[in-house]
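Pasting as-is:
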Amino acid sequence: MSATRLVLLSPAAQGRMPLPASMGQLVSGEIEQREIAGTWLQTWRLPADFAALQPFLEELARQGLAQEREVLWGPAAENEEAMRLVLRGSLTPTLLRRALTSLALRAFLPGRVLLAQGNELVLEIWGDAGHLALVNHQLLEALMEFPVDVALTPMWDSGHFRLLISDMDSTLIAIECIDELGAHLGLKSKIAAITERSMAGELDFRSSLRERVRLLAGTPVSAIDAVIRERLRFSPGAHALIAAAKRAGMETAVVSGGFTQFTRHVQEALDLDYAFANQLDLRDGKLTGEVIGDIVDAEAKADILELLAIAAGTDAAHCVAIGDGANDLPMLRKAGVGIAYRAKAAVRAQANYQIRHGGLDVAASFLALA
């Protein structure tokens, strides 16, 4: 049977908006009526053809405009699916109306409120999931001025995700280890400049890593311990995200273009299942300026994700990858869900989800991990 979705957004002080009496016979009851983020949200699924309702909806829109309310509507398509709109951050009436209007322009309309708690709001959204990636990027663009993280996601079943794999530097931890090691030696500006260009995709990762490591030749191993002790800090929400992933039965891994001395510390502190990184060559208690064995670069990260997925009895579609730099892109693209965490522009442009403002625990909200 044909149906139409109707959404009313009103300032909280004005309360709910009554429908015209002429629509009384067409309305079987609201799906939702609730005050959230300073806004009254009312939603209906009207059991009537969109074309037949057009005159009523246009009159309702005129009334809404006069009362500073917003009226959104559209046909309920046969191929539409329920999805989740997740908002985390400073929630305001302007933000909510901008988000829902942006989605309505692309035929995505809300149903129920799934969660409204503190700075987190989750709404049921109906639309064509085939356009999800494009709509997510358009939604981020529409909300660029707001200090909020947003994602439109499928309604993943419990247990859908089997593996969480994350980059280390500037992702699980809030520093770039090689830069901080350089700072300990008075070389930070020189090393950090190379790191920045590599993470932005301007330099080949393998050659940039070897160039930076050569600058460390002669450094005592004790300098690494000092950086771990004095400078290494975990990113906000790192512990909460890993704990949520473990509660959901996911395996966890850190895969880094950095060094094993640092990933071992991160693995132990977060109780991760796996850790992969580059091995520094040591001689007489000092760094030789060389890397032993194959370098963990962008392609290696993607390959490791695939191997760990097989080991977990699943495939990449049931894996989540998080990273911030250009050398994370193949891993983010291969994963079922790739999340760019406070990332470089080139990474944000290609990741299907982004965290721009909050901590890593925002990823748990995106993934519906308890």
